[in-house]
Amino acid sequence: MSRKKAAKGKAAASSPSAGSPTGKGTGKAARSSPGIVQMNGVVHPSRPSISNSSEFYDIAFKVMLVGDSGVGKTCLLVRFKDGAFLAGSFISTVGIDFRNKVLNIDGVKVKLQIWDTAGQERFRSVTHAYYRDANALLLLYDVTNKTSFDNIQAWLTEIHEYAQQDVVLMLLGNKADATHDRVVKREDGERLAKEFGVPFMETSARSGLNVELAFTAVAKELKHRSMKEPSEKFQLQEYVNKEMKSTGCCRS
Ligand SMILES: Nc1nc2c(ncn2[C@@H]2O[C@H](COP(=O)(O)OP(=O)(O)OP(=O)(O)O)[C@@H](O)[C@H]2O)c(=O)[nH]1
Ligand SMILES: [Mg+2]
């Protein structure tokens, strides 16, 4: 397997086709993508990556964070990428942005290009155009905000309309640390996820609970699919349950 170098920051941004509505976004995501993700997760061999980064990767995928404004998408990404929590006043994302991270999944370097979308309604048309290139979607609600939970069904409808049919999807109930403000029980999240047949877990960008696990689980699923390893059928929810139990850390 040839090993590619991970493009870094905004220069690596892959956008929907030129002239798409997303070109009107922040302008951060409108460039083409040398050596980056193909829809099946295979890196295009004929286009060398341009990078200052020393991180190499074997396969790359696009992951998109979606959900209502304020559920913690940006904080989740910052926690995963930098291991820090963005405390202080809430700065709502404008348009769409991305960060890259390379994970070692069973000896394979898997690069995730993670798109952080704006949850605000007025940016919806901007984000719609990005769905079709996404290999995985992390759909978040906020356990302290019932409306964000009630809106999950509408988000799923949107996802079915705009995303690839085989997109890897996971539901995350974020802010699990906020015990006193919690209004959505873990069981409610589990029930909804079961109803729609999507894997589920609770996370906390503040404490770091399950953040690494959420992205690793998605990366594992994508890697298994792209490497066509039917003999070792990977079950995302089973993996998540097992990992949560083995660390004993993650039930609130
Ligand atoms: N207690 C707690 N607060 C969180 C957590 N994650 C995010 N927050 C807070 O929730 C607010 C919104 O977080 P963001 O990550 O900016 O929300 P967002 O989903 O990116 O919002 P948009 O960009 O508008 O779509 C901020 O004030 C964060 O500090 C968490 O896990 N626990
Ligand atoms: Mg944001």
UniProtKB/TrEMBL annotation:
<protein>
    <recommendedName>
        <fullName>small monomeric GTPase</fullName>
        <ecNumber>3.6.5.2</ecNumber>
    </recommendedName>
</protein>
<keyword id="KW-0460">Magnesium</keyword>
<keyword id="KW-0813">Transport</keyword>
<keyword id="KW-0547">Nucleotide-binding</keyword>
<dbReference type="GO" id="GO:0046872">
    <property type="term" value="F:metal ion binding"/>
</dbReference>
<comment type="similarity">
    <text>Belongs to the small GTPase superfamily. Rab family.</text>
</comment>
<dbReference type="GO" id="GO:0003925">
    <property type="term" value="F:G protein activity"/>
</dbReference>
<dbReference type="InterPro" id="IPR001806">
    <property type="entry name" value="Small_GTPase"/>
</dbReference>
<keyword id="KW-0449">Lipoprotein</keyword>
<keyword id="KW-0479">Metal-binding</keyword>
<dbReference type="InterPro" id="IPR005225">
    <property type="entry name" value="Small_GTP-bd"/>
</dbReference>
<dbReference type="GO" id="GO:0015031">
    <property type="term" value="P:protein transport"/>
</dbReference>
<keyword id="KW-0636">Prenylation</keyword>
<keyword id="KW-0653">Protein transport</keyword>
<dbReference type="InterPro" id="IPR027417">
    <property type="entry name" value="P-loop_NTPase"/>
</dbReference>
<dbReference type="Pfam" id="PF00071">
    <property type="entry name" value="Ras"/>
</dbReference>
<keyword id="KW-0378">Hydrolase</keyword>
<dbReference type="GO" id="GO:0005525">
    <property type="term" value="F:GTP binding"/>
</dbReference>
<feature type="compositionally biased region" description="Low complexity">
    <location>
        <begin position="9"/>
        <end position="30"/>
    </location>
</feature>
<keyword id="KW-0342">GTP-binding</keyword>
<feature type="region of interest" description="Disordered">
    <location>
        <begin position="1"/>
        <end position="46"/>
    </location>
</feature>
